[in-house]
Design a protein that fits this description.
D-Maltodextrin-Binding Protein, domain 2; four-stranded antiparallel sheet; Dipeptide-binding Protein, domain 3; disordered N terminus; 34% helix; five-stranded mixed sheet; 22 strands; alpha+beta; Dipeptide-binding Protein, domain 1; 19 helices; single chain; 3 domains
Length: 615
């Protein structure tokens, strides 16, 4: 008897010890930097927002495990293919059978009508600088809903006019144009996404192979909304004669800005803006069964020393560690470090050729030694000087601890169109000096300039990149002044989208694994970074790059696509369109007790549904 008691006691002690060793066993806490920009899936276009939406909403399909080329069903019960008959009409029709028994977080049933509404609302909303261009391009061959509308108006009236010309000063449509606005919905959008029984059917104007990538889980813009709740909250009411009232609203005016009612495995409990903390709770009625953990916390802690201390104590399970601090966590007891993980991302510095009026980041706004003119970077010599005044190799080696690769342009290695033989920009202060001496007919050199370069606080790699550029530019001439400023991520994002920054450091994580997603984004006049690069850049791109980019995405022959993308990159390199700083190699730092993590570079952050904790 005493032996059984002893054995049971030992087992009990071991069990208690093991349980006590795992802190917060039902909760996964992530220590990161910054915070979400918005919780509106059709506005969100950053990884911080995407991580929250990934875990709270569902999409039609998802990537299969670690693959970025294979899919599996989610809200759709099948992945469309030619073989299963769900891709028809030579690639112009996609059929998605909608799963039954799916609940939204408020208990409402998910129906095919919710799916149709979700995509129609997103397209009609189409906020400037947002992600909806991908779905609009796939369906209609245009890049904004306004383009679709205005092409229809031009077809009906013969007039070539601006979207704003359709409306009176009170924001209501002018009587002569109201019917065309309603027709745009009834005749173009509504037939493009239809409910047929238990299916939702997408009708494309022409084949567009990347569409499944665009719709796959990881892309918040394809999230399924609850139509009933959205209308109750004040989103588009589903009518043809009101949609323009809900088009391109400011971020904070969206009823979904800080609210969610998805059907994903977790639901939002709190978004604390002051603490940069998002708290998620398990949704027990999730259609695929409840998650193993009860709670997930995404916490923006900008100071690395604080994040490190919390990791060491076991107070966080996953920790964002900049490459320059990697040595401080390697060998830490109870911590797993994985490094050199491939990414589908590029970090670059790009120039704004026409800074928006009212910018506080260009000083006097004149070339008088106390500022720069709004079109400062239209001079190729200015861009050339900045490109050559950066020590790329030293940055990767010393700041990133080797956790990055150099690329010739804004296209990652391994993508169609990539060619390692394209020229890399060199760190060359003599060339930078010569270019600045020629810039603006020599006035830059004689008068000097002053401008601000921003980074998002907590992103020490971007901070160091900005400071390195400042150091080398200022070393060329004491009249050159660059002020490096750190701001919170939402403020940085807002300033860059509004075109207020003379230059901006920005990363691009692939929306889908095709070269079009990078080449269009960075170089096309209507790409996501086209607007922030200013009107002068957009005009230049329309003349030099747009036609080539559009030709490349429609080309079927891979060899011909390769040649077209190489030609586009050569033009961009020769004209110093931007500075590809590095393609990052990812680092993963987590406590040993966290289980279930898998690597998929298309995922915006953590997949909490896959996790559990144990020794």
């Amino acid at each position: 008897m005493w032996r059984k008691f002893l054995i049971l006691s030992v087992v009990l002690v071991i069990s208690i010890f093991s349980f006590a060793a795992v802190k917060n066993p039902d909760t996964v806490i992530v220590a990161t930097i910054g915070e979400a920009d918005t919780l509106d899936p059709h506005f969100a276009y950053d990884t911080a927002s995407g991580e929250v939406l990934f875990n709270t909403y569902d999409c039609l399909i998802q990537y299969k495990g670690e693959s970025i080329k294979e899919f599996e069903p989610r809200i759709s019960t099948a992945v469309p293919s030619v073989e299963n008959g769900l891709i028809k009409d030579d690639g112009k029709t996609y059929v998605f059978p909608i799963r039954k028994g799916v609940k939204f977080h408020n208990g409402n049933d998910l129906t095919p009508e919710d799916v149709e509404y979700s995509f129609e609302r997103g397209i009609l909303f189409d906020p400037a600088g947002g992600p909806m261009w991908m779905i609009i391009e796939a369906l209609f061959g245009e890049y904004t809903w306004e383009d679709v509308v205005m092409n229809h108006v031009k077809l009906r009236t013969g007039k070539d006019m601006a979207y704003s010309d359709l409306f009176a000063e009170n924001g209501e449509p002018k009587p002569e144009y109201a019917k065309y606005l309603m027709e745009a919905y009834r005749d173009i959008l509504d037939p493009a996404i239809e409910v047929e029984g238990d299916n939702v059917v997408f009708h494309l104007v022409r084949p567009f192979a990347p569409i499944l990538y665009i719709l796959a889980q990881g892309s918040s813009w394809s999230s399924i909304l609850d139509k009933e709740t959205c209308i109750e909250k004040g989103l588009w009411d589903g009518k043809a004669d009101t949609w323009w009232k809900y088009h391109d609203l400011p971020k904070e005016e969206s009823p979904l800005y800080a609210f969610e009612n998805g059907s994903g495995p977790f639901k939002l409990v709190e978004w604390n803006r002051e603490q940069q903390k998002v708290i998620l709770e398990r949704f027990d009625d999730y259609w695929n069964g409840p998650a193993k953990i009860k709670r997930a916390i995404i916490w923006g802690i900008d100071e690395f020393s604080t994040r490190k201390a919390m990791l060491e104590k076991g107070d966080v399970d996953v920790c964002y560690v900049p490459a320059q601090y990697l040595s401080q966590v390697e060998g830490m007891p109870g911590v797993t470090v994985k490094k050199g993980l491939p990414t589908v991302s590029i970090t670059s510095l790009h120039f704004n050729w026409t800074v928006a009026e009212g910018s506080e980041y260009i000083g006097s706004g004149k070339l008088d030694g106390n500022g720069v003119p709004r079109d400062f970077f239209t001079d190729i010599n200015v861009r050339k000087a900045f490109v050559h005044a950066f020590n790329y190799d030293a940055f990767i080696e010393d700041v990133l601890n080797g956790m990055g690769e150099r690329v010739p342009s804004d296209l990652p290695t391994g993508f169609l169109g990539y060619n390692p033989d394209l020229p890399l920009y060199k760190f060359d202060l003599k060339a930078a000096k010569a270019a600045l001496q020629q810039a603006w007919n020599g006035e830059v050199w004689t008068k000097g300039f002053k401008m601000s370069l921003l980074y998002n606080t907590g992103n020490e790699a971007r901070q160091t990149a900005a400071e390195m550029l400042k150091y080398y530019i200022e070393s060329l001439n004491p009249k050159f002044k660059i002020e490096v400023q750190g701001v919170q991520w939402p403020n940085y994002l807002s300033a860059y989208k509004r075109g207020l920054l003379p230059a901006f450091i920005i990363g691009w994580l692939a929306d889908y694994p095709d070269p079009h997603n990078f080449i269009f984004t960075y170089y096309h006049s209507q790409g996501v970074y086209g607007g922030p690069q200013g009107e002068a850049y957009k005009e230049w791109a329309r003349e030099n790059l747009d036609a080539l980019i559009e030709q490349a995405v429609q080309e079927i022959d891979p060899a011909k696509r390769q040649a077209l993308y190489e030609e586009i990159q050569k033009i961009a390199i020769e004209n110093y369109i931007g500075m590809p700083l590095y393609q990052p190699l990812a680092i993963r730092v987590q406590r040993d007790w966290l289980k279930g993590w898998y690597r998929n570079p298309m995922r915006p952050g953590e997949d909490f549904y896959a996790y559990w904790k144990e020794e």
